[in-house]
Amino acid sequence: MGRMVWFDFGDTVLEFYRWDAAAGLAAVLQHILGESPDARLQEKALERSRLLNQLFETRSSATGLEYDQRSFLRLLCEPLTGRMADSLPEQLAGIYWDTAFSFRAQPGIHEALDWLDDAGISCGIISNASFPARQLAMELARHGLGDRFDPIISTADYGLRKPEAELFYLAEKLQPAGSTLPPWYFGNSIPLDIRGALAAGWHAGWYNRGGESRQRCPAAARELHSWGDLPRILQDTRQEAR
């Protein structure tokens, strides 16, 4: 086909269905201290986490810059514990992810990826994430998707968030040499995924599993209500290109 297909990560390939910040922070503090944190320290950590999350997200949303969860956790925990965690940030991020977050594969994503693989189409991921690509790859592997995406681009590794054009430019340069047609990008966010891809000259598919109104979605984007729609959309595009 001479085309590569890119996906968003959360709520597109994998569904993010649980965030237990308290459990994640307790596990991180235990790793730093070498013992279980008491209830008062856990409460202070949770409150500080809320304040820092608001600060970081406000700044990131206003500037398009991404922050790194490894730095975030150091800034959160070091004042509370009085201990430097400079040798532990990669471990801390992994501990927090594994304890705080729960994901499951989106219905039909395995079958859609099987179809792409049979068609000889390579796949990658571009994700707005404050965790490194390595963490995303490990989570994908837990759901039988460890060998499906290459490359995986996490904004934590590059400092910019979608819809910044530089991320899509980077992705184009990392595609296989035979990818000569405009790429596809599939995601669930209209302002971040769909508008970003279209602005970069890509095709865009809005993964609208929840059946939201299409009113805000650009006319140039295709719409999917399930991953069973993907083969038809790509086949239609192939016919149009002839």
TrEMBL record:
Q: Does the keyword Hydrolase apply?
A: yes
Task: Extract the Pfam families matched here.
Answer: HAD_2 (PF13419)
One molecular function GO term is:
hydrolase activity
The cross-references to InterPro entries, in alphabetical order and at most eight, read:
HAD-like_hydrolase (IPR051400), HAD-like_sf (IPR036412), HAD_2 (IPR041492), HAD_sf (IPR023214)
List, alphabetically, the SUPFAM superfamilies matched.
HAD-like (SSF56784)
Q: Which UniProt keywords apply?
A: Hydrolase, Magnesium
Q: Does the keyword Hydrolase belong to this entry?
A: yes
User: What's the protein called, per UniProt?
Assistant: Putative HAD superfamily hydrolase
Q: Organism, per UniProt? A: Spirochaeta africana (strain ATCC 700263 / DSM 8902 / Z-7692)
